[in-house]
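> forwarded from #structure-qc
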């Protein structure tokens, strides 16, 4: 479990939770628990996604994937245990002034991780191998597979602070949606054009497995244009939040400019 959860990584999702917590004036120590829960779900998903029955990956974060370092059965149990630990962490302490709000945080993370979020998106991804998807179909898949957990990170982080009004929550939700899509388009571009040493995982794997990506559907040039459009839309979404959203703006810049 330590190997899968602590071995490197960008930590974008927990950073987004901290940044959204700043918008709501949350205490960092409180957000840390919510951020850890989100990252544990992400780590579990990677351990399972890398399995031979899924993406059959050999490298993750510059090291052998969990099932290669240990074995398939261990990697399966590692993912199960990391997922359980995420909810233990999220429910284990007082993260919100209102217990009902903390229960809503648990519900948000559960939806993001399950069939209506990440797992459902992964199922679509597996079923789409060798199939040409339209851009709306591709977007639908990634709103679930990648975007759901990014959205959960933002909403759960914000819930650790003072209650935000409906308008502010809508700003954060819109920001998370477009940042999540931008993250995925950049991922597709990197998979197509970066090398394995830079990525820390096998480059060109999507093309080798004949998976639909933004690059395969739109081409590299149009995909880069789309990243810019999504970036601008995400920034515009949080413009009404003013200086409180500075960290969110910085993280969105990082998401679109990253090289791995």
């Amino acid at each position: 479990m330590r190997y899968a959860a602590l071995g490197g990584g960008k930590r974008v999702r927990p950073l987004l939770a901290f940044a959204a917590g700043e918008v709501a004036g949350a205490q960092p120590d409180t957000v840390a628990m919510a951020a850890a829960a989100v990252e544990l779900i992400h780590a579990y998903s990677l351990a399972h996604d890398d399995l031979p029955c899924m993406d059959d990956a050999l490298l993750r974060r510059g090291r052998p994937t969990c099932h290669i370092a240990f074995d398939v059965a261990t990697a399966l149990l590692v993912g199960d245990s990391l997922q359980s630990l995420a909810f233990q962490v999220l429910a284990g302490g007082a993260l919100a002034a209102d217990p009902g709000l903390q229960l809503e945080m648990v519900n948000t993370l559960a939806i993001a991780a399950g069939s209506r979020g990440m797992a459902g998106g992964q199922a679509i991804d597996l079923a789409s191998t060798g199939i040409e998807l339209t851009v709306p179909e591709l977007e639908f898949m990634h709103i679930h597979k990648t975007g759901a957990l990014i959205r959960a990170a933002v909403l759960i982080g914000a819930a650790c602070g003072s209650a935000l009004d409906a308008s502010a929550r809508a700003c954060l939700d819109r920001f998370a949606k477009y940042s999540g899509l931008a993250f995925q388009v950049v991922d597709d571009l990197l998979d197509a054009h970066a090398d394995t040493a830079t990525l820390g995982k096998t480059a060109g794997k999507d093309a080798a497995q004949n998976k639909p990506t933004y690059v395969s559907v739109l081409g590299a040039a149009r995909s880069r244009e789309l990243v810019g459009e999504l970036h601008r839309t995400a920034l515009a979404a949080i413009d009404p939040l003013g200086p409180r959203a500075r960290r969110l703006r910085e993280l969105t810049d990082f998401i679109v400019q990253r090289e791995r």
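QC bot note: The longest helix spans residues 166-193. The longest strand covers residues 59-60.
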